[in-house]
Amino acid sequence: MKILRYFFDTAFRNIRIDKWANLLTIISISIGLSILCAFVMITFNMDSVIQRWSNSFGLVVYLNQDISKETEASLQKRFQQDSDITEVTYISKDVALEEVKKSLGTNAVLIDDFNKNPLPSTFELKIKSSLLDPLVIKKKAADLKTLFGVNDVLYGEKWLSSLSVIAKTMKLVAIVFACAIFIATTFTTYNTIKIFFYRRKEEIKTLKLLGATNTFTRFPFLIEGLFVGITGGVVSALFILGLSSFTTLKVVEFMPSIKAIMAPFPLQVYLLIPVTGAFMSLLGSFIAVGKIRY
Amino acid sequence: MIMLADVKKSYDNEVVLQNFTMTVSKGEFAFITGPSGAGKSTLLKLLYCYEHADSGHIAVDNWIVSQLKIRTVPYFRRSIGVVFQDFKLLCNKTVFENVALALRIHNMEPEEITKRVIAILKEVKMHGKADVYPQYLSGGEQQRVVIARAMVTQPMMLLADEPTGNLDAENTRTIMRLFREINARGTTVLIATHNEDLYFGSGSRVFFLKDHHIEKEIIG
Ligand SMILES: Nc1ncnc2c1ncn2[C@@H]1O[C@H](COP(=O)(O)OP(=O)(O)OP(=O)(O)O)[C@@H](O)[C@H]1O
Ligand SMILES: [Mg+2]
After folding, report:
1. Which residue among A145, A172, B4, B32 is least crowded, i.e. fewest CB within 10 A of its CB?
2. pTM, to two decimals
3. Does residue B42 register a pLDDT over 50?
């Protein structure tokens, strides 16, 4: 424990000696983290947009023309009990006809002559958003179609598959970018600590000749890296906090639509940013203080 | 105890030591001398594991140096004190901190470190310059700091490479008396030197290093 104090003293003396290089590293890390955050924020918001789109997605179950009231009732019960289905709306053939008439307006006279309603009764089903995958839905539709009394099951197949492609691509792009920024930021600390470490190579050699272990010679550098990472994280968190409160307080005044796409960050995120910074720069420092013999 | 058996050491293609055999007993006070470039420093470097022998066996106290694992080297080095010919003082640390460093590596309590460092600096007459940085010291002063750093850990083995090279007659006497004192407490001492005055009349064994091996051995 007593040696920890010495490590911290050494680390903070080194930080003071190299204050400009450390400041630059802190700035780089905070920029990297802020970009990373912006990316997470964009995907986070995109997710909610996609979520909203998918809320409008539904399966339409067309029933047989000659279906009995009992079968309809049992089908409705069957759908309501299905845990994959979140919402069941029944539209009787009469209501459907009224709808059509309404949409035709004055031309409604055209179909007034039908002595028999040609439209089937339908159920509109909303599916749990976690199941909105083209293959899963395809299977679900096929399952529903086998039910007694069901004539056909239709849904926006093209729409669903492009939605799923968009979502997947977005996720992939986000992950690739996040990884790239993660690596870049880690590399920034790696580079700085490596330079410090190599500049003190002679000193480290001497320490080792006096019997110092690798832990002893490397510990101050790890503390230095950790400090730089946490500070960079705090700077970035403050920056984002400022930016987001500026947006919610000021920009909203002349751009109200921004509210819809800007979900505020949960508070834990502001804690997570310095932790991420600490983790990245500690990792970079660990790699930087690799082997020096003797 | 120091033991070298049939050791060969070369740098690139230049042979420095060959068929080199030598033994120093536990608690002995011994000198090694020879012309410049004969390999005295190289011999000491082999002993504190800075250089590695091409072949042969080396043992220091209970440690088989020629087979030491990388991980155990630090613990071995803590058991010996070395006065380096080129000092190896840290220029960004004061005299006090330079000497204290050896004890910090031993993970000693700060109060104990302060006590011991002040005591040893008094012994080498450097306590007046405890807060000075090495580059503001004369060669002889730096040398005394290095000696203090080597002795402050009270090692069981002291290897000194030309420890009096920069010292005047009086300081030389002081340092030699210190070496004798630590030797009297059980530490084995091996000194590499050109200076005949150090060993003449000392009553200690003197090894003459020439042409890659011990040419002769006398009692000084
Ligand atoms: N790191 C090295 N690389 C290559 N050659 C070296 C190295 N160190 C020493 N030598 C060579 O090995 C020989 C022995 O050197 P060493 O320093 O052991 O001599 P020495 O006996 O200590 O001399 P001095 O009395 O001048 O200190 C010299 O010829 C020197 O040039
Ligand atoms: Mg030498």
Report:
1. A172
2. 0.79
3. yes
